[in-house]
Amino acid sequence: MQLILDNIAAIMIGSAIILIVLSTQFQAQRAATEQTIALISKTATLDLGRVLEEDLIVLGSGTSDTITDIQESGDSLTTVFEFRKLDELGTEIEVTYRLTDANVVTIRGEAVQLYTLDRYEDDVWAGGGGDHIRFFSISMLNTNGHKTSGVASARLLRVRLVNVYPYGEDDGSTIFQSHWGITVRPEGLAP
Hints:
This protein is of the alpha+beta class. It has one helix spanning 2-57; strands at residues 67-72, 78-86, 92-107, 110-121, 124-128, 133-141, 156-167, 174-184. Helix content is 29%, strand content 42%. The N and C termini lie far apart (97 Å).
């Protein structure tokens, strides 16, 4: 009888050790996955930010016009931003950023709308920022840094962008947010 009780105790202790090791391994794997997703989010945000900054710095430089269209939705999202610039060959082109609805994800029971930000050159698709944009806004500012609606009085552009990547299942889900913002003085908006 003692032998049977010793074997049962050994099995229980062995099972507990195996469960502890498996739990530790699962937590380490989850942490590594979360770090990878956060890195992807940050990298995508910085890549999109670099393209935006490069475009906006030379906005209107050497062209006959600068900002040709800017449209906002009711919730302060910039849905269309259109401007003229010179390409690498010195040809005047029209660059358009369009924000369109993408997926709706559920984060802890709350629906979150995500958007796609696409870039066009002369109405031909020229890249995009993926479909994980939560917020995108371009504001025209005057010399004092106050928001203006007129291109003639605009001297600065403030860009704000939030890129997100959801992770996990509905109840235990989280969302990684990467914020990017810049205020630039484009060459073409100088007085």
